[in-house]
Prior knowledge:
This protein is an alpha+beta fold. The protein has a single domain, classed as Electron Transport, Fmn-binding Protein, Chain A (Pnp Oxidase, Chain A). Strands 1, 2, 3, 4, 5, 6, 9 and 10 form an eight-stranded antiparallel sheet that branches. Strands 7-8 form a two-stranded antiparallel sheet. The longest helix is centred in the middle third of the chain and has 9 residues. The two termini are 14 Å apart.
Amino acid sequence: MESLFKKINPNTLSENFFTALNNDWGLLTAGKPDNFNTMTVSWGTFGIMWNKPVLICFVRPQRYTYEFMNKNHYFTLSFFNSEFKDSLDYCGKYSGRNTDKIKGTDLVPYTTDLGNVIYEQSRLAFECKKLYADNLNPEAFVDQTIIPSTYQKSDFHRMFIGEIVTCLKPY
Length: 171
């Protein structure tokens, strides 16, 4: 099967990731093609850590994707053009525990060379190898005013740091 995507060097990107995450959102996906889950994300960060290009994402423990993130060594983050905003909205409103998110959207899963899932409609996707995971610690918040407005249920996010091993754009 011919690949729909080409690998690019993440250093060549000129994307505004503040806009991509906060306004456009993305889909965080973990698992294998026969058993995966995806969720809409609007929080995260990109950078260099341990001399590697990294992506840092945050997942609450009650999210179904949390289980997949903990069990798998890789995860992906896919970005889309604006016409797929309804699909991303759907993936953010419904849980994969009791809903087939793919059937509820027009998204088509695509298996990467490493066996991870992105989507045929992705305009940009990152394949990440987990390097580090830890729960946000309430005692470590310097600005304690964040907690009452964001963590009323004490459901502190788990932070996942992944090395960007593949950056993909459509041909």
